[in-house]
């Protein structure tokens, strides 16, 4: 599993952003292709029918964001950029889906925590540490997102701790929010693992500290506040269950993804109230930032007015950077004076960006994926799986952070890859009886007969032909928790 952590680390480094050498740029794609080929050869359970049955919603989601990338409206998205990112995204999704199905068939997730730590926490912690090292060595690999390199913004959070420094744009990142968004997601996972699990607490604790330091230096307040808020919510949920002897989450919990749609309305009403509380002024960078939602209200109002005048293009969107392709981002460009490419700034909301990029059809697919994942997490929680806590934490983070950031596409590539990882893990936790299809050859059949003659069962048989495999919610309301494999 450590090798897989290194593979993911190599992918999220995004070497094609920094290297002109085609060999270096293609390295992640080649590594992913090789890893998929090895997995495919090792497991008879790996076939397209199984992959689609278990991950159909996720596959459709990956396809729509890849199509939006191919149809990009971005002025700076070269053909090489598009090809590299299409290859990375597709192969990464296939690799994750294949590995978790293969690992499930071999071990039945005897070490569920290790999967989450090695795939979702360790690689991103290594990336954050690499950024700190390069920052302290004064290495610069990316262009500043500010229009003038000498311009800067004060780090509000650190200033309250007595450190008066500017917001840090780390060497391996092309901005502030795009880095903070996925570090915040990884922070949700690591904090939940550290608090609710005893396994490998040194790793999860160290990762949490690194992610916290990163968010303080980047000075992204929402990406820092939401993980703490969500952790408290989950903790209170556990207390509520214990106090009233409840074991199941209410079914209404499955409607949580609706926050993607109604979230901006909540944002509009809550932030003006917060702005009137003197004790909370410290979270603002000054002026009327809280009252205007950092200008987001103005942007959303323009976008909603555009949506009110229906056009056929709104059904399928304009491709990546659809807000620019539609001409709308040019209208709110004046709000981003001092930033590079102000005319290409997104609407800073997941639902609006989804409509601009892949239309109402794509938004429906994205929402369908969220509803499907939340339904499975609820069943995991109801059946006592402790892995439900960090997975739930991350999924809630998607909903809350997505209110004020465009998180449904490839603007935050590494966040999308982390989302694919988490979604594939959730899906692999709900593999049902009679779901998997075993593709055999003559040699496989001979080997199976031989095994039966010797009264032995191989790893694959243990993986798919067990009477106690869990079923999908359509068949029963049970889902696999911390399953203990039978003794051999």
TrEMBL record:
The topology of this chain with respect to the membrane is: Multi-pass membrane protein
* Gene Ontology molecular functions: ligase activity
Q: Which residues cross the membrane?
A: 22-40, 52-70, 82-103, 115-137, 179-195, 202-218, 224-240, 252-274, 355-374, 386-404, 410-426
Q: Which UniProt keywords apply?
A: Ligase, Membrane, Transmembrane, Transmembrane helix
Name one matching Pfam family: Wzy_C
Q: Which residues form the O-antigen ligase-related domain?
A: 208-367
- Record's InterPro entries? O-antigen_ligase-rel_domated, WaaL-like
What are the subcellular locations of this protein? Membrane
* Name recorded for this polypeptide: O-antigen ligase family protein
């Amino acid at each position: 599993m450590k090798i897989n952590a290194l593979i993911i680390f190599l992918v999220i480094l995004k070497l094609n952003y920094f290297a002109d050498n085609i060999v270096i740029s293609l390295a992640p794609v080649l590594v992913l292709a090789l890893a998929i080929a090895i997995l495919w050869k090792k497991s008879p359970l790996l076939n397209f029918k199984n992959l689609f049955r278990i991950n159909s919603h996720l596959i459709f989601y990956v396809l729509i964001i890849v199509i939006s990338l191919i149809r990009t409206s971005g002025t700076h998205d070269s053909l090489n950029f598009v090809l590299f990112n299409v290859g990375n995204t597709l192969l990464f999704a296939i690799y994750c889906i294949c590995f978790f199905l293969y690992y499930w068939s071999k071990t039945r997730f005897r070490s569920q925590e290790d999967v989450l730590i090695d795939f979702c926490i360790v690689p991103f912690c290594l990336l954050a540490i690499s950024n700190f090292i390069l920052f302290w060595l004064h290495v610069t690999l990316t262009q500043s997102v500010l229009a003038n390199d000498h311009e800067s913004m004060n780090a509000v959070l650190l200033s309250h701790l007595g450190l008066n420094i500017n917001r840090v744009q780390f060497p391996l990142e092309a901005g502030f929010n795009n880095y903070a968004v996925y570090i915040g997601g990884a922070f949700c996972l690591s904090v939940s693992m550290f608090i609710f699990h005893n396994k490998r607490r040194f790793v999860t604790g160290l990762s949490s500290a690194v992610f916290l330091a990163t968010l303080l230096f980047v000075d992204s307040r929402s990406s820092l506040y939401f993980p703490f808020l969500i952790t408290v919510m989950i903790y209170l949920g556990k207390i509520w269950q214990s106090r009233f002897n409840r074991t199941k989450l209410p079914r209404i919990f499955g409607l949580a993804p609706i926050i993607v749609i109604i979230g901006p309305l909540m944002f509009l009403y809550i932030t003006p109230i917060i702005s009137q509380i003197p004790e909370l002024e410290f979270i603002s960078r000054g002026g009327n930032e809280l009252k205007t939602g950092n200008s987001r209200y103005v942007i959303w109002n323009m976008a909603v007015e555009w949506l009110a005048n229906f056009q056929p293009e709104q059904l399928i969107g304009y491709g990546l950077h659809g807000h620019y392709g539609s001409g709308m981002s040019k209208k709110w460009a004046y709000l981003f004076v001092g930033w590079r490419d102000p005319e290409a700034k997104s609407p800073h909301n997941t639902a609006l960006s989804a409509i601009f990029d892949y239309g109402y059809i794509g938004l429906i697919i994205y929402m369908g994926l969220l509803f499907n994942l939340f339904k499975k997490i609820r069943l995991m929680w109801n059946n006592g799986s402790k892995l439900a806590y960090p997975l739930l934490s991350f999924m809630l983070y998607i909903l809350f952070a997505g209110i004020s950031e465009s998180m449904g596409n490839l603007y935050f590539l590494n966040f999308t890859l982390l989302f694919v990882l988490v979604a594939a893990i959730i899906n692999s936790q709900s593999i049902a009886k009679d779901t998997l299809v075993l593709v055999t050859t003559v040699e496989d059949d001979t080997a199976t007969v031989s095994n039966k003659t010797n009264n032995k069962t191989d790893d694959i048989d243990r993986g798919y032909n067990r009477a106690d495999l869990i079923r999908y919610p359509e068949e029963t309301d049970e889902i696999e928790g911390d399953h203990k494999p039978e003794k051999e």
